[in-house]
What does this fold into?
Amino acid sequence: MSSTTPRTKTIRTDYLARVEGEGGMLVKMRDGVVTDVQLRIYEPPRFFEGFLRGRDFREAPDVTARICGICPVAYQMSSCLAMESLAGVEVDGQLRALRRLLYCGEWIESHTLHVFMLHAPDFLGVASAVELAAIDPGLVETALRLKKIGNEVMRVVGGREVHPINVRVSGWYKAPTLAQLEALVPDLEWALEASREAVRIVAGLEFPELEQDYEFAALSDGDEYPIDRGSHVVTSSGGGFPISEFLDHVVEHHVEHSNALHATLDGGAYLVGPMARYALHRRLLSPAARAAADEVGLEPVVRNPFRSIVVRAVELVHACEEALRLIAAYEQPAEPALEVGPRAGTGHGASEAPRGVLYHRYRLDDAGAILDAKIVPPTSQNQRSIEDDLHAFVSAHAELPEEELRLRCEQAIRNYDPCISCATHFLTLEVERT
Amino acid sequence: MTTCVACVGNSLRGDDAAALAVMELLQGTVPDGVRVLGCEGEPVSLLDSWEGCDTAILVDATQSGAEPGTVRRIDVNETRLPDELTRSSTHVLGVGEAIELARALGRLPGRTIVYGIEGSRFDTGAPLTAEVSAAAEQVAAAIRRELEQADA
It folds into this structure.
C-alpha cells in the first residue's frame, strides 16, 4: 500500500507473510535519511508467564510447549533444564542423547520450513511456497520430505510431531527402542544428502549487500555444538556468563510500538540464532556440516544477515548428521526418567531453539508450585538487531523504487525467521519518507 | 477406492475443535476402508493424510465473520478456498496453503471437498459453542451421505 503527501512518503505492508505471528513495521525517512525504524508487534500478549503461577513444576514443559507450534521442543527443554537445575538433577547419558535427538528433529523441521518455504521465495522472486511449487516442484518436494523426516523424528522420540507428549522433567515417559530409532536411519541418510544439496542451492542465490557489526551470543555446551542445553552464554566480544546470571546481563524492556519486550545484552543490541552459533562454534559443527560450509566458501563469520539462509542450511546438515550419530550410539536406557521431587528455590535453563537462545527461569515453593516464571525467547532478543538491519539497509538503499524497498525490508525481517507468536507477539511494513 | 476424512482442529481452543467433534461423530459410522483422522493442520501431515486417496474430505473451523455454526461445502478441485476462510491459521502454512501446494505438486486427490464450520469462540480451554456442536452433527451427517453415495 502506498500513499504520498507533499512531505511524507509511506511504503507499507499491512500483513507480512511468511512469518509466524502478527506484526508490522514502520520506517520513517526525512530527505533520504532514515530517522526511525520500528518493528511493531501487535499480536496480543499471551500471558504464559502469568498462568504458570501456581502450577506444579512438572507441568511447565507441557504448558510452555504450547507457546509455539514450530519450536515446542525448545520450550520443553529449557523448562525441564530449569526445573532440574533447581532439583540438583542432571539428565545425562542416553536420556540426554534422546533429548538432543528430539531437538535435532525440531531443527530439521523448523529450518526446512524456513529455508525452503518461507525464505527461499524472497530470493527466487515468488510470493509463496505455493508459487515456488509451480516453478520448482522438485525443490518443494525435497522440502516436504525433509520436513516430514524432522516431524518423524519428533513423533518417534516425542510421541507426537507437534507439541510432543513424551517429555517430562528428569527424562521421558517412555524411552524408544533401538529398533524404533534405527527405522529412522534410511530417511535421515537421505535427509543428510538432501541438506548438503540444499547448502549448494542456497549458497548460489543472489544476496543483497549488507554487512553488520553484530554482537553474537550463543550458548556454550563444552565441546558440542549447542542445541539441547548450555551451561554458559558466550559472546563474540569475548564475554561469557553462566546461565544463572542471564538476567544480570540480558534486560528486557517495553517499547511503545511493540507487544513483545525488547532485550539488550549488557546495554546493547545483540544477535542470537544460526549466525551467532555458527560464528561462535563453527569448529564444533559435524564433519559433513563443516565440509558443506567449506565447499561453498562460507566465511567463518557471516555478517550479511541475508546469508543467514546458508548458515541455516549448514545447520540442517549438522542436525541430520548429529541425529544419525546419536542413533548409532543409542542404547535404550533401563529407566526412562530420573527421580525428581519438589524443592523450593530458583532454577535457570536455556537451550538453542532453531531461532536462538531460549531462556527460562522459575521460582518454586517447597511443594513445587511455580511462584513466578520468566521466559526470554529468541525473537525478543533479536528485535533490536532486526531494526538495526532495517535502518542500515534502508539508509544504504534509499534510492530503490518503493516496491523493491518494501520487498527487501520484508526479506530482511525474514532473515531472522522471526517467531512473533513466541515473542509474544506479525508484520506490517510502513516506510515513511519526508 | 480410498477415502480419507481429515479433521483439522485444536481441542484446546474452543470452536477450533469443531472438526474434532465431527471426527468423534464419524468414528464407527463410516463405510469400511474410509480413514477418519484428526490433525492439527500441520501441512506435511495433511498432504500425507490423503496420500494415495481418490477422495479427501477435509473439515476445519472457520472464522470469517459469518453467523456462528454456518456450514460451507467447497469442492476445491473446482475452486480455491476463499481467502476469508484461510487467513486465520495459527501456523505459517495453513489448510489453504496445504491444498494449493498439493495442487501445484499434482498431489491433490481427484475429489477433494472441504467442509468449513464457522466458529465464534476460540479461547483457550473454552468448550464448543452450541451452534458449532449442532453444525458438527449436520456436517457429520452430510459426510456420511457423501460417503454412502460414493460407495453406492
Summary: Residues 3-151 of chain B form a domain with the Rossmann fold fold (CATH 3.40.50.1450). Chain B has four helices and five strands. Helices of chain B lie at 18-26, 43-49, 95-104, 130-151. Chain B has a mean pLDDT of 87.
